[in-house]
Design a protein that fits this description.
Elements: H1 2-31, E1 33-39, E2 42-48, H2 53-59, E3 69-72, E4 82-86, E5 89-95, E6 98-104, H3 109-115, E7 123-125, E8 136-140, E9 144-154, E10 158-167, E11 171-175, E12 180-191, E13 194-207, E14 212-219, H4 224-227, E15 231-242, E16 263-265, E17 276-279, E18 283-289, E19 298-302, H5 306-312, E20 315-322
Parallel strand pairs: 1-4, 5-8, 10-14, 15-19, 16-18
Antiparallel strand pairs: 1-2, 3-4, 5-6, 7-8, 9-12, 11-14, 12-13, 15-20, 16-19, 17-18, 17-20
Length: 323
């Protein structure tokens, strides 16, 4: 009877062992997934039952150095996941005058300092804070810190506004600016009494800054220089000035258009009516009027005011006939 019981126990153990083996093998097969590993510019496709990022990378035949990092595009290794090998690179680090080379995958001096155990407020220096292979990082220990509040001036801002009623080159100050004031809380970091860095902690405006506003002209002025290429000919003429109300007082020209600035009277035998002209000191004009005294090389210009007409007086001008 004892022999039979022992035999039954042995058979049961063998069966249980086979069942565990079958379940284990089935489980490995069930957990197989295809993963992509990116390393050194190449992509590797790996079919694995492993769940460790580093284990999968090594299983793909890729060597990992002590400071290299493996990152995944998912929280857990699953079908279709991508693992990326980030290679550590050398950086020269100086602390208290002593320099050594370390390998890291960090991308900023601050992150590297934290990795090395030099957490804020210890101060690091590196170009733009970013580091790469061959960068030099200087870590300065902060031995003391002070916080002060200072009032400082807000510089006057100059605002330029375009104005097409003013000629190019003309400017007009329409508002005179006044500086403002702001209260700034500043943190100063020291290393054995030497200032190594100041940080602005907060800022509040005490007095608003008033900007200076300047209008600048955008209207292009036509000159004899820039009309020369547009003119078909030029005539030296004796010029005078008149007002719209002169003559019959109706302010209507010989061609029937109102007499306004930009209308001039000519001898039609010299300059046909309707011709576009340019007169230096007056601007562009249209020959649209005549006059009993306007004979030959004479021209009469309509002005806006009596004062303008008197200032212009009588003078010789070069009249450009525009195409």
């Amino acid at each position: 009877m004892r022999i039979q019981k022992t035999h039954k126990r042995y058979v049961s153990s063998v069966v249980a062992g086979l069942m565990v083996t079958a379940i284990t093998l089935t489980g490995f097969s069930y957990n197989d997934k295809t993963v992509t590993v990116m390393a050194d510019g190449a992509a590797y496709t790996v079919k694995t039952h492993l769940n460790s990022n580093e284990g999968i990378v090594r299983n793909a035949g890729i060597k990992l150095n002590p400071k290299d990092k493996v990152i995944s595009d998912s929280n857990s290794v699953q079908e279709g996941a991508t693992l990326t090998v980030v290679r550590a690179f050398p950086v020269s680090v100086t602390v208290n005058g002593k320099t050594r080379t370390v390998y890291t995958t960090q991308t900023t001096a601050e992150e590297l300092a934290n990795e090395l155990g030099f957490k804020a407020p210890n101060y690091t220096t590196a170009a733009n804070g970013a580091i790469q292979s061959g960068s030099t990082v200087n870590i300065v220990r902060v031995t003391s810190r002070a916080v002060n509040t200072v009032d400082q001036e807000i510089p006057v801002q100059v605002i330029r506004e375009k104005d097409d009623t003013m000629a190019i080159g003309e400017e007009e100050v329409v508002q005179v600016g006044q500086p403002g004031t702001e209260r700034v809380q500043v943190e100063t970091l020291y290393n054995n009494g030497n200032v190594i860095k100041t940080n602005e902690l907060s800022k509040s405006v005490m007095t608003n800054m008033v900007p200076t506003i300047i209008k600048e002209g955008t209207r292009e002025i036509t000159t004899s220089r820039n009309v020369a290429g547009r003119a078909s000919r030029s005539i030296v003429m004796e010029a005078s000035a008149y007002l719209a109300g002169d003559g019959d007082g109706l302010g209507i020209t010989a061609t029937g258009v109102p007499a306004v600035r930009g209308i001039v009277a000519v001898d039609p035998d010299v300059i046909p009516l309707g011709t576009r002209l340019f007169i230096p000191g007056y601007g562009e004009a249209v020959a649209a009027d005549t006059g009993g005294a306007i004979i030959g090389n004479r021209i009469d210009l309509v002005m806006d005011s009596y004062g303008e007409a008197m200032d212009f007086g009588r003078r010789d001008v070069t009249v450009y006939v525009l195409d």
